[in-house]
What we know:
218 residues; Oxidized Rhodanese, domain 1; 434 Repressor (Amino-terminal Domain); 9 helices; 46% helix; 10% strand
Amino acid sequence: MPMSIPTDPDAVSAQIVARWLEAGDVVLVDVRETKEYDLEHIAGALLLPLSELEAEMFPVLADKPVVLHCAIGKRSAAAGRMLIGAGHAKVLHMDGGLAAWKAAGLPVEEALAPAAEAENVAPLFLCPTPGAVLREEFLVPAGLTAEALAREIGVPRELLDGLLRGEHAVNAEMSLRLARYFSTAADFWLHLQADHDLERTRHALGATIRRAIRPRAA
């Protein structure tokens, strides 16, 4: 049986991406390298360099499509093919990349620090902590305080505060308690934690692991 070849992601113009981004309808991902991002980038774009992209570990974002961009559109198209090949459906790329964005007169954020300090700028991530999701998507919309939630789910206030700050990880018991109260799937919060941990570890150790370990031949 011939091997299936991943299809190219659909290309969208910079102007359309700008409208979608302003409306909060897409997740914009910059696949250039960290030094390029540090020099200039689109406000609100998340950083995931193509050199570190592992398609099988890319989070599934069910609510919004992902738009990839690079400098001129070549790397974002390659990244899109990788994600589509791994089964991600809602993947687009920005035609012409950052060059087209600037040619359309759209704004970019430039580095405030000297280029020599650029490596110290931390990348942005796609997978927030469970605490950030809890705060922004559950507590704030419901007008619910941390103190009230801690009381309702039967956990110490200090434990919940640590979770909201990203200092404490979600375990199975906390996932069950939050799932019961907010009527989510029992493993919803554990999956958030796992996605967050995998992404951070991939950024910290992914290159080292790829160099050190050779995949076992079938």
